[in-house]
Design brief:
This protein is α/β, with parallel strands linked by helices. It has 3 helices and 7 strands.
Length: 138
């Protein structure tokens, strides 16, 4: 069964996502991060500047090195070629989410973000999954 974790009410969605990416990388795992293209570009920049003395190796999914890179950024989850973990920064249920063993949903505290997250949460529940919810408020 897929583990689905919602991290809601996060103060800064991208900062929180950077911390999750750092944890995944430190654990020696691969992560596919999906979001709309503009948000991905911002997240890419944030990964470069997140911590002054750390490097979180990452690239876009169209980069020739993406299969050898631990953190891959994509506008959609095209396939499960990028490991077992999927981090969704988007507003819809990721296509092909069932190919992953774990889905991480990072949600801010804005009304629109929370409403979209509730729809995704309901979708997972209606399809037999039992999502976990971690209300952060940081």
């Amino acid at each position: 069964m897929i583990q689905i974790d919602f991290h809601t009410h996060v103060g800064d969605q991208l900062d929180y996502a950077c911390r999750l990416a750092r944890k995944v990388y430190a654990a020696g795992q691969q992560l596919l991060v999906i979001a709309e293209p503009a948000l991905l570009r911002t997240f890419d920049t944030r990964l470069w500047t997140f911590a002054a003395l750390e490097f979180i190796p990452h690239c876009m999914d169209d980069d020739a090195r993406c299969l050898a890179t631990p953190i891959v950024l994509a506008s959609e989850a095209k396939a499960a070629l990028y490991g077992r973990l999927l981090l969704n920064l988007g507003t819809v249920v990721p296509p092909h989410f069932a190919h992953f063993t774990r889905v991480l949903e990072v949600v801010g505290s804005g009304a629109n973000e929370l409403a979209a997250a509730r729809k995704r949460y309901r979708f997972y529940r209606e399809h037999g999954y039992q999502p976990n919810n971690y209300k952060r408020g940081d």
